Each structure stands twice: as C-alpha cells, then as structure tokens.
Predict the 3D structure of the following.
Amino acid sequence: MNLRRWLTKNTSLVPADKTKHVRRRYRFTSGFVTPTPIYAYQAIAVATMTDNKSYALLDDMGLGKTLTAIYTAANLITRRVLDCCVVVCPAQLITTWERELEKHLPNVSYVTISGVTKSKRDDLLKNKAPYFYLINYELLSRSIVLSANRRYGLRVDSDCHNLIQYVLNKKRCAIFLDESQSIKSPTSKVTHAAFFMATAVEHRYILTGTPLAERPEDAWSQFYFLDFGESLGASYYEFLNKYCVIRRYGGWNRSWQKIVRYKNLKKLARQIRKKSLRRLKDSVLELPPKLIIEVPHVATKTHLTVMRNLRDKLVSALGASTEKNIYKLLFNANANEESVSSLLNIIRRASVTPSYVTGDLNDDTTPHIADIVNAVENKGRVLVWTAYVDTAVRLSNALSKHRIVNAVLHGKIENKERNRIVELSEKDSSMTLISTMAIMRRGVTLTWFDTAVYTQLPFELEHWKQSQDRIYRIGQRNKVSIIVPLLQQSLDYFIWSMLNRKISVTDVASGDTTKESVLTKESLLDALTCW
C-alpha cells in the first residue's frame, strides 16, 4: 500500500510532503499525539501494533524499536485499553529504557523493578501507580517460577512476593519482550517464565532485530509467546517436523537426533510475516553507505607453525566425526565432537594471539591490528571489536605505544563504569574504544564512531550483526567502514564464508531474501588442506 495513503487512513496528522525520511509528530485516531517527532515507518508500526493484540516488531537493528514500543503503549493507554505495561529486557538495557522514557514521555511514571531491594519494590507498588514496569529477564525467571511453584502447590519461601504477577492480576497489562531472542531456547527457565506470563494478559509484543539469532528454530519460542502455537506449531517438535530434516543416530540403548538441514524456509517466512513487521534500513532510511573492507595479512613463521599444528589436530578430529553439518559441530556438539568445537575456538583465538598457545607474547599479531587502527584513526573515529578480554588488553597496550588514547570495555567492568566510559568516548573525539562483542552488542548507540575493526570474526551471527549496528543506525551521518583483517593460511576466510552462509539461511527464513547457500564439512576440510 502507498505510504501516504496508509498514513491518511490510520492517522490524523499527515506529513506535508511525500518524503518518508523526515521526522514529524503524528496524531493517532485514539487522540494520542507523539510528544517528539518520529519517522513515518515508526508511525506505521505504532498503528499496526495498536490494532493487534499480539505482534512482533522485527525491524532491523538501529531503527528505533524502543521508541516505537513506548508510543505503542502510550497509544493503547490513551485508548483506555490498558492500565500499564510490563517491559522485559536484558539487564544492560534497563538504563536505555529509562533514558528513552524520560526523554519522550517525561510526564509518565515508571518503576524499575530490577536492581532494587525487595522492601523497596514492595513500597513502589503500594505507593505509586506507574504506567511502565521495567524488569530484566533474570529477575523475571526467578519471580515467575516461584509464582508457578506456589500455584501448583509446591513449597516456596513464604516471604517471596511476586510483584509482576501481582501487577498482571490487578491491572490490564501489555507485555513487551525487548531482545526477545533471549527466550529462543524452549527449555530455558526464562522461556517458561515468559510463557507463564503470557497466559495472564491479552496484549503481547516482542521486539528484536535478530529473531533468528543463529538458526531458524530460534523463532518458535518467540512466536509461541505471542499466539500459543497458532503460527509456528503448538509444540517445538511440531515445528521441527515442519521445517527441519532430522536424522536419528545410535541404537536401542543410546540414541540421539540431529537437524541435518532445513526445509520449507519460504513457508516459514510467510508464517512469520503474518504476525510481524520487518523493515530493513535501506528501505526506510537514507543512511550513509556502509563498506566492508577485507584486509589480508601474512603470518610469521612461528605463527604459521602454531596454526599448522592446530590444523593437523582439527583434521584428525574431523575425520573421527560422523557429523557433516558444520553448525552442529559448532553449536550442538555431542561428547564425541567437543574436540572439534574447542579446536575451532582455539584456532580462532590463536589467529590473533598465538601466545595463547606458545606463551611468547612477541608472537602476537595485535601490533598488526594496532597498525590498522593507527592508519584509519586520522580519517575517522575507531571502534575495535574483539572476542576475548586478554586480546582487548593486549591491543590496548599496543595502541598506547602508538600514542593513541583508548579505553577498554569487557564483562569484568561494572555497568556504571561502562556507561561512564561510553559517555566519555562520546565527548572525547580522540578516544578509540576497544570492546568485547558479548557485552556491548545490545542497546547501546555508538554513532559517533564511523569505523569498526574486528580482531576476530565471531562464530555467532547475532554478535556479528548487532555489533555492526551499534554504529550503523539512526543518527549516523558519516560513511561507515567495517574493517575485517583476515590472516592468510588460517581459518579466517572459512569463518567469513560461514558467517555469510548463516546470514543467507536466516535471511531466507525471515523473508529478507530467497537465496540460500551451502556449506558442509567437506568445505572446511578443503579450507584446511589449502594451508
């Protein structure tokens, strides 16, 4: 449908011109007027989610899903459909939600349930009537599991007061799951807690830019939360039978099953589209171009010897493995294949820091990465992504030798200190930030950086996509460069191919593309024999 025609039908305030790349204030049919300007595609999302009691907002990362969810909740409250909303998100995103609420709805009260004492939480519930309750996934799983135990007559601590369940029982609520891929595992406690919450409310929404974080089966739990199996199957096994080819191994006394390939991915994409809205950056925003630059470099003799020794061990482990699917070797390894997964991780780590194997710090290639950062530092602001803490620390020392001001972020640093360093990096234009991908890939805007350098390529597709989108999102005004150093005679090129393969599989399932590439164990063996 034409964008302007849709807006004319669903909103009262229509942009004066035809462009979709200008932010404006919108008045919806409920009478709610957005206090701050938003893009047309965000207005469409607000109206669509308001008209559906269960819906998935799967917009590309960096398109403002948090603000869209806030205005959706405000629109529903204005319609007098809801009394309040419960927002469940990762712990590191609590401050992001607080900041967005204070900025865009300054007169609306909210309560942060995570991070406060039990007595304080009780006081907040008794003395206030907030519109938003913010809670993290960890606290949610503890709270709801205790409530479920009490419900089914199991013994629990009598002093434990289930705040969220109290809210759901007393008020008309909507539940928003931010970064809903957190419930992708059907057997996890947090997933069961989310399912338990879903039975108490009519309005349920999920927000994520990576609904298929690693594999197509990641979608089932998220959509079961929305419609209890209407879209993707009433059980996880029903989903697997529809969209996966499963092979069974073993005998009568010990057997197991594995997914060997996927099927009906286009049908899966159609089912997902029925209850979701997904837009990519290129289709709704005029962002500067993003370039991915491969920088090959050659290993030293010592480094090459280390890599070849690891290669020989990996070839031997692969020969002993019966699994042909590379992704099962990496993520679903059984007892016979753990050596394959661990060797792949060691090889990836040794490609940048061979001292991890040899113990000699002089063998490390972090000075090479430092040279790349030094070369591009004068042309833009640089953010360095790494997979390991020790790599980040060694790279920081190498950058200091080049007299480059830098700061390091990793999981051992507390949240308050991380936020302080991030704010300092925004103010200090000369600072280079070095961060591990695991802790900074969600909910952080780093658009003042325009160049990202990867010391190691991640196996995890979610890490790869979300780390890039910290800088390539709304607010980015400069051309973005993604620099990927690739060590020749290593697995870097194979991991690079593997990431592209995973992107193609998940894109087909989510409807972003219709093409799918193939990658097998034989291709890994071919890559190893080329050293």
Observations:
- The domain at 52-284 is CATH 3.40.50.10810 (Rossmann fold).
- Confidence is low (pLDDT under 50) at residues 1-19, 145-161, 331-338, 512-519.
- Residues 301-320 form the longest helix (20 residues).
- The radius of gyration is 24 Å.
